[in-house]
Specification:
By secondary structure, the protein is an alpha/beta fold. It has one domain: 2-Layer Sandwich (Transcription Regulator spoIIAA). It has a five-stranded mixed beta sheet with strand order 1-2-3-4-5. Helix 1 packs parallel to helix 2. The longest helix is centred in the N-terminal third of the chain and has 17 residues. The protein is globular. The termini are far apart.
């Protein structure tokens, strides 16, 4: 799994590529949490355009970051989820907590 973390003003964009599974979840969680501690992040965007699969560990990372952003009165978004990943997000109920968008440009808070 490849991960790119990019700050734009007060927004952290996380671009993932590959399978977001138990083998990768802890490493990704650590990298995101380190960035959240280093920077003043008010918005968090998970870009899942290039993610082919998400398991419960990946969902746990997403939910955990959602909780962290809520504690900071921040916002979180998911963009670009492929149909199979979007279905997993829907079955897990994450789509009821975190707004889903087709691409990063649709989010106007940046």
């Amino acid at each position: 799994m490849d991960i790119e973390l990019k700050m734009i003003r007060n927004t952290l964009i996380i671009r993932l590529k590959g399978e977001f599974d138990m083998l990768q979840a802890e490493k990704i969680r650590r990298q995101i949490d380190d960035k959240l501690q280093e920077e003043q992040v008010h918005n968090l965007i998970f870009n899942l355009e290039k993610v082919s699969f998400v398991d419960s560990s990946g969902l746990g990372v997403i939910i955990g970051r959602y909780k962290k952003m809520k504690e900071k009165d921040g916002s979180m978004y998911i963009v670009g989820a492929q149909p199979v990943v979007e279905k997993i997000l829907s079955l897990s109920g994450i789509n009821k907590l975190v707004p889903l968008f087709k691409n990063e440009q649709q989010i106007t808070k940046i």
